Amino acid sequence: MTDASMQGGAAAPSRKSSIHTIDARTKKRNAAEARFKAYGLAAILVGLFFLVVLAVSIVRNGLPAFTETTVDLEFVLTEEQYQEAEGTLFKTAAYTDFFIAGLREQLVEDGVEVAFDEDAIERILGKVGGNLREFYRANEDKLGEPVSFTMSASSRVDGYMNGRVTRDGLEDSRFLMATDLDLVDVLRDAGIITQSFNWNFITGADSGVDNPGGAGIGASVVGSFFMMIVVLVLSLPIGVAASIYLEEFAPQNRFTDLIEVNISNLAAVPSIVFGILGLAVFIQFMHLPQSAPLVGGLVLTLMTLPTIIISTRASLKSVPPSIRDAALGVGASKMQAVFHHVLPLAMPGILTGTIIGLAQALGETAPLLLIGMVGFVARGYPDGFVGGFTEANSAMPAQIYTWAARADVSFYEKAWGGIIILLLFLLTMNIIAIILRRRFERRW
Amino acid sequence: MTVKLTASALAIAAVSATAAAARDNVQVAGSSTVLPYASIVAEAFGENTDFPTPVVESGGSSAGLKRFCEGVGENTIDVANASRAIRSSEVEACAENGVTDIIEVRIGYDGIVFASQQDGPAFTAFEPADIYNAIGNQVLVDGELQDNAYNSWAEFNSDLPDVEIAMFIPGTKHGTREVFEDKVLLEGCESTGAMEAMMEAGMSEDDAEDACLDVRTDGKSVDIDGDYTETLARIDANTNGIGVFGLAFYENNTDKLKVATMSGVTPNTETISTGEYPVSRPLFFYVKKAHIGVIPGLKEYAQFFVADEIAGPNGPLSNYGLVADPELAETQAAVANEETMGEGM
């Protein structure tokens, strides 16, 4: 270029160029580069925009799930009332009636001057009977003594306190009347209805559809946890052993090629297929219990294995051959070279791959649909460690799916809240993966 | 690969040896319409008795009955929920797998309502004929049977708003679809005269009935295979949309939806229980008699479900939107006596 312009000299001013004036072709090239940079930037900005929209909508929709509206009341249940309630078939309803009567007395005592009809208190309260019965069955000595209870209010009162429910919106509602809100206002001013952090959402189990206040994600977190144990215990050793054999020991022939192709294909199989397989093999053929985290874990193991094998093989490959040669050179056997030198160096990569595979399995719903983990399943905590594997339980994504399909809007909020918890778990796992990689990764 | 499979099979066998202990909870699966009620009962059953809370899975009536009919034994379900009666083909499939004694329990009635956006056009009164004219495949125009080309509701009924037709109806996997076809489409087909015209054109009565159930495929009628929440989302996004919901779902979302009358009757638990409101259907669950006495709490669960305190007019189910069965006492007796299908009917 410089040669050409020097030869051209003053005779051809159009071809003359200097580093101070930029010619048309350079301009064009610079413009193309600037355009490409702009495209890239735009792509990143669009991606960021969607991420922000997603994060904002998740947080905005999910935060109400973490506050609960409660009714605080000091309440006395007499021995006779206890016996009477225990004598009925629908005991919890009897407890609820006593609690409502107690709240009504309290209101009369306080001199509340709002007109409210017979059932207003029932509509304001959530389902309290179950908690009351549980408490008094465990503490019979508290009968006849005043005990202060904090009971959840109904989902619509909760919505009113959060601003989701308005007076206009209650026009046709049978579950809470617009007039009841006057009573709610008075109770709030009297400090009987308060809002607090909803611990029950984090520690509780699933509840019936008419009891959104009692629903929590805790039991399904436990279900997910036991599933992840199964996945980890089975897929890590199997996956690592398979990769070491394929990478270090297996002869290169048609047969191993076939296996390799199959593993890569298996990684791309839709997860629902593993669900159908799980139903047919584990439940119908092997007679494992239905809806159990054990079966869920086995299905997810099948799904996670290819991911772990592929990432393990990649990290084994990235260990330089000189390490193996050096080990073999000083007289180590093949196995010693692999286990004393290659494997420790590949470990950060293997762990990262495993954690990412687990995170993927943690968020998987489709296969769980088929093995009966969707519905009213996460009803309580399992009984002991073995029970955690065999007793019917749900998993976090399945629980979120269940809640999103329920009629009451409060459950929809809970579904978003559940997404926040699930994302926190995924984020933690990914951060652990990153830290492991940063800490232990060796570069050559 | 084979090595891996054997290894995992060994691991499974080791765990399953401990897992094969007796199941102590009732296992239920089936209709997503019955699921809400079953979950209310299951929770109450767990709270009020010493039995563990039953597990209630969703998945749809047909899927539930299919699993119910897989056989007898602990790894099969005890109860199938259904939003329609069991079909004779399903009874046969059951019998083939050894499930012969089935107790049918009717828990009450479910109303099916038509609702549109709260702020949308005034869709407040429908006749079955209107729905048929809107989404039927072949409609009668000026005495001629032709492919449905209506774009707006006002074109066939000047009382209805002049807005584009957009209906969201339950997909064919739902039990609700069957009721919608029987009580609305077929009814409308007959009352508009389309069915008569089809039969005059040479169709047999059965063929004409089938043809009446065909809905137009030009996108004005959309099948929803998901739950009512999906229908609600579609209605939210479309001012002119009309959706088909269960009564309980509508009552839980009155702030977003307004309901239309059918043949002049407003749907609520009263009009449905008296039969005035035409579009309703019974809900059932089916109990495997062979499991009673094997699975603890199974009979107690069935009895608890249909007790007056639960399924009666003032119970939690009716409070949530189930229309109580006026003949509940007979059902209670049938459950108490473990009357199987064919015996008491």
TrEMBL record, chain A:
The lineage of its organism: Bacteria, Pseudomonadati, Pseudomonadota, Alphaproteobacteria, Rhodobacterales. Belongs to the binding-protein-dependent transport system permease family. CysTW subfamily. InterPro entries: DUF3333, MetI-like, MetI-like_sf, Phosphate_PstA. GO terms for cellular component: plasma membrane. Keywords: Cell membrane, Membrane, Transmembrane, Transmembrane helix, Transport. PROSITE patterns: ABC_TM1. This is Phosphate transport system permease protein PstA. It comes from Pseudoponticoccus marisrubri. It comes from the Bacteria. One of its GO terms (biological process) is phosphate ion transmembrane transport. GO terms for molecular function: phosphate transmembrane transporter activity. It is a multi-pass membrane protein.
UniProtKB/TrEMBL annotation, chain B:
SUPFAM superfamilies: Periplasmic binding protein-like II. Residues 16-309 form the PBP domain. Keywords: Signal. Gene3D superfamilies: Periplasmic binding protein-like II. The keyword Signal applies. Residues 1-21 form the signal peptide. The keyword Signal applies. PANTHER family: PERIPLASMIC PHOSPHATE BINDING COMPONENT OF PHOSPHATE ABC TRANSPORTER, PHOSPHATE-BINDING PROTEIN PSTS. This is Phosphonate ABC transporter substrate-binding protein. It comes from Pseudoponticoccus marisrubri. The lineage of its organism: Bacteria, Pseudomonadati, Pseudomonadota, Alphaproteobacteria, Rhodobacterales.
